[in-house]
Amino acid sequence: MDILISDANKMARNRKTPMTTGDARELIRKSFSDLTAANQYDSDQDACLHRQNIMRQLQNIDQSIVNSGLRYLPKEAAVILAEVATESFNACVQDAEIIGGFDISANQRRMNELKQIPITSAYALLGGGVKVIDNAISAAKQPWYKPDLPGETARKLCADKLKWHAENLAKVKASETFYSSGDDLKKWVMQAFIEANAVEEGAAYIEGAWNQMWEDIKENIKQLPAEVRKQVGELSGGIFEWLTGIPIWVPIVAGTGLLGLMFYWRFGPRSSQ
User: What's the pLDDT score for residue 16?
Assistant: First the structure.
């Protein structure tokens, strides 16, 4: 979004590269989308009213563009739009938790820590990936008068890979505990979020879908038998405790009898008291 605004400011002040009405309306759409998302999650009434006022300004500018029938914005109009869009951006990023960008590096590390994927968790991963890649494909479509956003081939490949996993999961036998193609599924789910972020950088729904996906995985793992949780924990390390709220040594102790119980009482939480 800030890149769009930077470009808008450059075009607004440079008569050699005027802003097209298509670019202007795309900037308005992005700004309006972020303002709407921010107001959905912000309980500060004054901040919400401020954003609503900006949204009205954007609507008025958009309507003026439509009514003008022009291909390029006059310099004065482009300057006004760039200023309003900048104000819109600032009104959203005041609360980074609401509009913060999708942290690819940190989220990739979390995904990498999930070494073994139970079948139920595979479905949760798949659902999160499908949701965001479908949104990305839809959001990348542009009006008839301008080309779609770049990256169509990559988005389609990602969607096709996730479709393959959906079909593959449907063939899994009831006796299977872990998804044998889990690593490939993780790869394409992560790619789905990356593609979505490329289309709508920082969009609130991306972070929301990511968090919901992990909440679903948490609940799924908590419902697993102790022995399966043990296997997940041994392979996944620290993320296991984050997912379940259970220290990794608890499910291990469950299967070790009296010796394990003695180990727990000696080196578990009481040893820190």
Answer: 53
